[in-house]
Amino acid sequence: MSQPRIEPAPEAPPGARALLLETASAIMREGDIVDISLSELSLRSGLNSALVKYYFGNKAGLMKALLDRDMAAITHSVDALVAKDFDPETKLRRHLSRMIDTFYATPYLNRLLMRLVRDSDPPEAQRIAETYLSPLYAAYDRLIADGVKAGVFRDIDPQLFYFTATGAADRFFSARLVLRHCFDQDTLTEELRDRYRAHTIDFIMAGILTQK
Fold this sequence. Notes:
Helix content is 74%, strand content 0%. It is an all-alpha fold. The chain folds into two domains: 9-57; 63-208, Tetracycline Repressor, domain 2. The termini are far apart.
């Protein structure tokens, strides 16, 4: 009985996997979308599209790997911040600042997260939630509790705070069509990011800080 023919791995230059992820990220950033075509990915990266199957299994696997790459940076930074010896207000301000920068760099991130949770099978959806959503909620829970104990934060619901904070960041950086048609601005510049960062931090902190 003949053995099934094993396809050889496509020839790939060093760093091909990382290049595919970064190219997919760039396509979604520039197009304000949460999907890619493998033909455009191949054209933009200069790599054989067969490498997507080799490294990730399929396009869905590529999207999951991109989510893992981008979300891991967020959860690590939150864990590191919570562990630092700063007062709760300073920690929260720094976290909000970093979050705005993250959504500016990867405006597709929350939409990609929600899409993969929705479209994945239950075990994978649970993995995503437990790996990325639960740690963020736990960090907010601890940070807000520390602020309440220190007398600087009002006793607010950390779950609702999660939706408020991430919603404020995601909505702005995924609204280029609104900027284009309502404000005649199609580019998310660093100057606009900085203005929105200052606005968001002031707005959210005003709602959580106790009256002094």
